[in-house]
Amino acid sequence: MPALPLNQHELAEAAQLKQLFIEWQHARRSQGLPASQEAAANQMEFGQSALNQYLNGKIPLNIDVAIKFSKMLGVPISAFSAALASQADDYAAAKDAMAMAQSRGNDFRLVGRRITIDTEQDDSIPIKKVSLTLRAGVMGFEASQEDHTDTTINLPRRFIEKNDLVPQCLLAISVKGDSMWPLMIEGDVVVINIADTKPINNELYAVNFDGEAVVKQLVREGREWYLSSMNPDPAYHRRACRGGECIIVGRVVRQEARTLMNRV
Asked: What Gene3D superfamilies does this protein map onto (predicted)?
């Protein structure tokens, strides 16, 4: 499925970034240093095709990519995207949450690999419900808060403890489309663990695939990984998952109960 066209604001950001990139190339060449798109892509550790698409406004920028451009170009994120610069604090907070998976949190502590929740806490833990705006916010995606009437879901404390999960690393998202039917349908809510991005055969993940957010099953054949749908319709064929065009956002750890009224 092709990525959605960028809006005018995103196109303006891409144009500004491209100008800064051209200036970076000129400076590098004057110093006799590698300045090609290939060299830049290698430095930022994603594919040249993805780099070209970011610069030419084919796929939208995200926090993770913006930070890489900022470091390579030697400019602040605000030099090409005020919107992403304002989200940098949220990104840093999420990074800190991941680090807390091996340290101590505000309302939980780790004993070995097991999380023990404070027994004085409620029996449920609120998890932020977000929209993944790279079509699937930190580590290759952006997360924006859902509407203010429904910004969190509650997970059982025992579920979090039993599965060694860190609440700050969990996000709830709504499933879009019917590629995962009958397991998931449009509007179903799944919880993803953004601290768990190591691919495991046949497990479900939220993935930023070529700038679009998808929930898919990861399947391995030989040395290759593929994104697989549950829907048997031939339109939902497998796609190879490799390079910077396929970034695992997090593993699906829970699917919330469905409301069946008006669905059959």
From this structure: lambda repressor-like DNA-binding domains, Umud Fragment, subunit A
- Backbone torsion region of residue 190, taken as left when φ is above 0, otherwise alpha when ψ lies between -120 and 50, otherwise beta: beta
Taking Cα atoms as reference points, which of 61, 65, 75 lies closest to residue 21? 75
Distance from C-alpha of 158 to C-alpha of 33, rounded to nearest angstrom: 55
Q: Sign of the CA dihedral 91, 96, 102, 107? A: negative
Q: Which residues pair with 110 in a beta bridge?
A: 115
User: Across the strands, what pairs with 189?
Assistant: 174
Widest CA span in the chain:
67
48-83 burial: b if 16+ Cβ within 10 Å, else e: bbbbebbbebbbbbbbbbbbbbbeebeeebebbbee
Compute the 3-state secondary structure of the chain and give helix, strand, coil in percent, each to the nearest 5.
30, 25, 40
Which helix (DSSP H) or strand (DSSP E) does residue 125 occupy? Answer: strand 124-128
pLDDT tens-digit series, residues 105-161: 433 333 333 333 343 445 888 888 887 644 333 334 445 554 444 578 899 999 998
DSSP run (H or E) holding 65: helix 63-73
Tokens of 182: 């009958």
The reported pLDDT for the residue numbered 3 is: 53
Instruction: Name the burial class of residue 108, with classes exposed (0-12), middle (13-18) and buried (19+) by CB atoms within 10 angstroms of its CB.
Output: buried
Residues 140 and 134 sit within 8 Å (Cβ to Cβ)? yes
